[in-house]
Structures are given as C-alpha cells and as structure tokens.
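re the bet — no i am not wrong, look at it urself. input seq straight from the record:
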Amino acid sequence: MRIDLGSAGHTHTASLSVEIWDARPDSGLRQEWDEVAESTIETITGDLALWDTGPQQGVGISLGQPGHWGIRAASAGRAKAQQQTRLIGAVHGVERWLLQFWPVTA
C-alpha cells in the first residue's frame, strides 16, 4: 500500500502530473519518457498522499473510490537533473514525472 519513487537529483524541484483513468490507458509513453514502470496499489479509502522532503509534504490525490488500482510511473530529465544539481545546485522542473492510475480487478 505504498509506492516509492526515487529522484535522480537532490536539492531540486521535479514536476509531477497525475492522470486518473476509467480504464488502462494506452502504454505508448516510451517515446516521450526516459523510464516507464507499472505496478498495482490497493487503497481502502481511494485517497493517496504524496510525501517528499520539500515544502509540499502531504499533497493528496483522490482516485474517487477505494480498491485496487494500476499505476504507471513515467519519468524524464533524470540524467540532466542529476548532472545539473551536481554542477550548479538547486534546479527546478528539469526532472518530470507522470503518474497514471486506473481501476483494476483484484
């Protein structure tokens, strides 16, 4: 009942987009994204909390209903964020993430 996402850089702000679908979305993301991974998660409330070490701790995502959900996490800009945080320090919006959720039958 937990998903951990690891950032490539440190002392930076990554952008995050969340999409909630009625059914599994098309998986043609690989052209635009550096890494794509899928898993499932179970939620007893239909609500998820996002936590990080930055100022936006506790941001919520409402899936609309409890149950089992598929999740696809896609990321881009990770190598560039890692390089830039080493060279110049804090950067913003270089690393970006997309989380897609859809209901699944257990």
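see?? DSSP finds one helix and six strands in the chain. told u. also Residues 78-87 form the longest helix (10 residues). so pay up
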